[in-house]
Amino acid sequence: MERGQNVLVAAPTGSGKTVVAEHAVSLALKSGGKCFYTAPIKALSNQKYNDLCAVLGADQVGLLTGDRAINSGASVVVMTTEVLRNMVYAGSSTLDDLEWVVLDEVHFLADAYRGPVWEEVLIHTPGSVRFVCLSATVSNAEELGDWVTALRGPTHTVVEHRRPIELDPLLFVGDRTAEREHLLPLIVNGVTNPEGHRFDAEQQRPSSAQHRKPRARFYTPRRVETIERLTSESLLPVIYFIFSRKGCDEAVRQCFEAGVRVTQPEDRVRIRELVEARTASLSDADLDVLGYDLWLEGLEHGIAAHHAGMIPSFREAVEDCFVEGLVRVVFATETLALGINMPARTVVIERLSKFNGEGHEFLTPGQFTQLTGRAGRRGIDDQGSAVVLWSPFCTFAQVATLAASREFPLVSSFRPTYNMAANLIERYEEAPAMEVLTRSFAQFQTDRAVVLLSARVHNLELEIDEYRSAEASNSELVFDVAGYVEITDSIRQLKRDARGNRAAVDRALAALRPGDVLERGTRKGSKLFLVLSVSSRKGGVMRVRGVNPSGNSASVEAATVSGSLQPVAHIDLPVPYMPKDPNYRRQCAGLLKRLNPKRLNPARLPDRGQQGSGSERSEAAAIWGADPYLDALQAQQDHPLHDHPDRDQLMRVQFGLSKLQQEQQSLVQEIDRRGSGLVQRFGSVREVLERTGHSDGWALTPAGLRLRRIYHESDLLISLCLTEGIFDGLEDAELAALVSCATYEHRSSEPAPAPLLPSTELRKRFGLMQSTWKRLERLERGLKLPLSREPEAGFAASAWSWSAGQELDDILDDDLLGGDFVRNVRQLIDLLRQFGDVAPNPTTAKSARRAAESLSRGVVLASGEVS
């Protein structure tokens, strides 16, 4: 760093990466320059701001998080990564004298939605600025370091694989046949515990002979059982991850009702002090609405929940109490794992799958590493424990593999967005803008992959030449081998099709009648078969019995049909009908033998009159009416290669050649896809901007200039609605309600709340907003772009009520938790402030600023304060 190099540090949680960041701060202050410290979430920014204030003094440190601005002209400013990206695009004077940027949690660039922001910052920040990039340990850290070097000059990469505190991964299994639960290691001597497979769910399944399924031996331990066992094993404090807010709250209630208490009387005094410090700015009325008394009682038992449904003051109080060792059991959602400084002795993961907003997905190695990174307190514990609860849906080997996969590859999620495209058009000429796209980590990874793929294609071409040389030695057969292989493949496929079509064959057999004459095709030719009986066996399987011209009996079932089998005539059978009588069968065989060949007509089944449904007869005709299998067999026999002495060797050569050619074609297509992906995506985004009036060639229209200043997931939809005047002419509270339809997103697996719009005018405007979105969606779908998120009115009534001055008690209910309310209002305030800057209608801009101020009060204002 002192030589002016950039630095990338990839190391596990708790390894001391922060000391490198602090040195960047020290270097900037020493030279009279600035250092920006970025974090992925506001909670981390607030925490880092407090840490730096404690060391440097509040006058030296600033904070910028979108909704808070403290001492923004300071030499050291902490901010979210998005704030820095916005500054860079705006060419803010705050960037003057900037020497160092710390990008904390840089592995976030793999995040599907927010990841591109990290790359935008690294690409567009002035070249004189040096970077300290802090990351979790990823398996391709050197590749990331090489990219930063290519982008910003010499970069020193430091990779640490060892955790500062060793992790002991365990499986906790409930056992109804044992006195206590099993707590066993997942890894023994570096490999999967060989005893673990005994606990797999399939080991306890009953045999098919058992009529009644017995109660399973193994089960998932209950939450109270788990806490009691961890307490007895001296494995507290614990962070217990439950991927559900309701689950976290329910777990606290269960422990409370079971009488679990992990605090001493003297702890409760200090707990109250910490809680009162965090909640001092909240009114008694708001505290009552938020369930303060019950929450505090849980804290005094040493048990708490931690999730986004809680207001920030409550979450911060839980963090304070946990860090001081007063609260020793925290039930948390995965948001707690995002860098918050809350080390524990033990981490429990209740389930290895979680809801991602659309469905349930299995944890990735990266997510598992992030969650278990909290296990083990540096300077206190010799090791940390990661306890996974048993599940019938995961084998022991699956859990052990996940626990052993401590590192994961970092894959770029960079893609051009509408706002990004608008800023590129405004800042660069077309050719330099395209060059900027090629500087992304996504393109860097693609280029490396293309080099490897191209090398593989070259090697394949050499192998293909060798195969062709082998074929050339049998030049008279070169062009026949491929044809013979094709015939052989078709025979295999016809056999597979026949096996997969047994139900249809059964229905065709059911359409036959005694007296039907079938022609059976085989490799030796065709033979006639006279149907004497058609019967249905167990399971609906049809059996057809009959005789051949020699008088030999035979039967046909769907499973035994091979070659061709088709009706060609019908004979009136002798009476009385006695198909089981040998003499009768010989008599029928004689009729078949004397059958005039001119009567054979394979074109269609004989007319049944009312016998059998039309669908049965037509389906049977489709099955019997042609015989590609027999044709293929005949073609195979007639082929000149069929009896060639080197047939098998030549076929192996052809198979190898075909396989190589298919792989080569696939790789060439992959190279084309990778090489042009970003450019094609950017071209499609540009076309959307052009067709929606945001650009004209390589120039932005007034709408496009507005778009480049809108930083939101729904940036283009918002810009279109502003252009169309959908937000104009509304009262302040109505504007807040309508804008919330762009910021609110229902993410729970629970059903979304019914949209409630407080006025007829709002319902009309929301309808216009949806119509605009539908037009945009059709355009995006046609260009194969990701679809813009549909506006949702689930928070509109709450936004209107709060902006209009109603109390918290009138707004919160079982479906809207305090933390969700605060988060949604703060996101709404952020967008309304942007409206105040970009709305083309001055009246709307003023209304947006007033609406933002009306929302910033009470619990919302208190939650934005930094202690």
| Proportion in helices | 40-55%
Strands, count:
25
CATH superfamily of the largest domain: P-loop containing nucleotide triphosphate hydrolases
* Most strands sheet: 8 strands, mixed
Task: Return the CATH architecture of the largest domain.
Answer: 3-Layer(aba) Sandwich
User: If you compute it from the alpha carbons, what radius of gyration comes out, rounded to the nearest whole angstrom?
Assistant: 36 Å
What value does the average pLDDT take? 85
Structural class: alpha/beta
* Number of helices, counting only DSSP H or I runs of 4 residues or more: 30
Biggest sheet, spatial arrangement of strands: 4-3-5-2-6-7-1-8
Beta-strand content bin: 5-15%
In terms of per-residue confidence, which ranges show pLDDT below 50 for 5 or more consecutive residues? 206-211, 603-626
How many distinct folded domains? 5
How is the CATH topology of the largest domain named?
Rossmann fold
Query: What shape does the CA trace take?
Result: globular
Topology:
Elements (H helix, E strand, L loop, with lengths): L5 E5 L7 H14 L2 E6 L2 H15 L4 E4 L4 E2 L5 E5 H10 L7 E6 L11 H10 L5 E6 L5 H12 L2 E5 L6 E10 L6 E4 L1 E2 L2 E2 L25 E2 L3 H10 L5 E4 L3 H13 L7 H15 L4 H6 L2 H9 L2 E4 L5 H12 L5 E4 L13 E4 L3 E3 L4 E3 L2 H8 L10 E7 L6 H9 L13 H10 L2 H9 L2 H32 L5 H23 L1 H9 L5 E7 L2 E12 L5 E6 L5 E5 L6 E7 L11 H12 L20 H11 L3 H11 L8 H45 L10 H6 L7 H9 L8 H12 L16 H23 L13 H8 L14 H21 L3 H14 L2 H7 L3
Parallel strand pairs: 1-7, 1-8, 2-5, 2-6, 3-5, 6-7, 9-20, 14-16, 14-17, 15-16, 17-20
Antiparallel strand pairs: 3-4, 9-10, 9-13, 11-12, 18-19, 21-22, 21-25, 22-23, 23-24
Helix pairs in contact: 3-4, 8-11, 16-22, 17-21, 17-22, 18-20, 25-27, 25-28, 25-29, 28-29, 28-30
